[in-house]
Design brief:
alpha/beta, 2-enoyl-CoA Hydratase, Chain A, domain 1, 21% strand
């Protein structure tokens, strides 16, 4: 398993487990999380040994969407309008399925 601050990426055979790892912020997405999500999705797409990705959240909440602190800090443009928008979830073509293993709350951008 590769563990980063914001995202964990683990493989189990042909499955990539991508875990939002900001439970203290209810897995809200800031600019660093956006970049890490984009990298994880690019890794999933590039690896011929992976067939599917599962996105999940660490802790009791799947995701509270965009981190409002990031909005106040001026990160909104990167999060909302960067490549693929919102970490690559809004407007990025995919070849492989990505399943959201939603538990607890899934709010705003965490619901897309």
């Amino acid at each position: 398993m590769q563990t980063g601050t914001e995202i964990e990426f683990e493989t189990r055979g042909p499955v990539a487990l991508i875990t939002l790892n900001r439970p203290g912020r209810r897995n809200a997405v800031d600019a660093a999380t956006t970049r890490a999500l984009r990298a994880a999705l690019e890794r999933l797409e590039a690896d011929d040994g992976l067939a599917v990705g599962i996105l999940r959240g660490h802790g009791p909440v799947f995701s509270a969407g965009m981190d409002l602190r990031a909005f106040v800090d001026g990160e909104a443009d990167e999060i909302l309008f960067g490549p693929g928008r919102f970490g690559g979830f809004v407007s990025h073509a995919r070849k492989k399925p990505l399943i959201a293993a939603v538990h607890g709350a899934a709010l705003a951008g965490g619901f897309e």
